[in-house]
Amino acid sequence: MSDDYKYLTIDVGNTKYAIPIEYAGYIVSTDRGFLQCTPPNMPPFVKNILIIEDVQALIIDLEVLSGTEPTQKSHSLILLLDFDNSSIGILVYKINLPPQQSEVSIEANPAIDQKFVKIGNEKYLLFNVSELYDAILE
């Protein structure tokens, strides 16, 4: 992945993530009137199924998935991620496109098998979209 790649940044609980913008599909307000339903017999981190423009997406609460306590009562946005011809939505409080992305670097931490994206002076955990899909769709 190129160091000058663009990222969206999100906060989930106390963790700041950077998501490569190539995976971003839609950003949907949770108060919009899109057709959605609560699926039966789903794990607790699956909150809804959203249908938008013939796209069906599971809506995932990353705080529940990761086992952390929610930091706010309700999420205001759904970020739909497109990967491998399917979509998954994640509930987020806010989405940012950092204005200055000219100084972007990726740092690996082999001890915890994670990568970090440094954008200017801020450091974000690189959101592994394929790993999320593997965990959800297995």
Work out the helix count.
2
How does the overall form come out from the CA principal axes? globular
Class in CATH? Mainly Beta
Total number of β-strand segments? Answer: 12
Beta content comes to: over 45%
How are the strands ordered across the major sheet? Answer: 9-1-2-12-11-10
Q: How would you describe the overall organization of this protein?
A:
This protein has 138 residues and is mainly beta. It has a single domain (7-137), classed as CheA-289, Domain 4 (OB fold (Dihydrolipoamide Acetyltransferase, E2P)), CATH 2.40.50.180. It has two helices and twelve strands; from the N terminus they run ββββββαββββββα. It has helices at 62-66, 129-137; strands at residues 7-12, 15-20, 24-29, 35-37, 46-52, 55-60, 77-83, 86-92, 95-96, 104-109, 114-119, 122-126. The strands form two sheets. It has a six-stranded mixed beta sheet with strand order 9-1-2-12-11-10, with no helix packed on it.
Provide key terms for this protein:
about 140 residues, OB fold (Dihydrolipoamide Acetyltransferase, E2P), 6-stranded mixed beta sheet, 12 strands
Question: What is this entry, summarized?
Answer:
The chain is mainly beta and 138 residues long.
Q: Helices and strands in order, then pairings?
A:
Layout (H helix, E strand, L loop, with lengths): L6 E6 L2 E6 L3 E6 L5 E3 L8 E7 L2 E6 L1 H5 L10 E7 L2 E7 L2 E2 L7 E6 L4 E6 L2 E5 L2 H9 L1
Parallel strand pairs: 2-12, 6-8
Antiparallel strand pairs: 1-2, 1-9, 3-7, 4-5, 5-6, 7-8, 10-11, 11-12
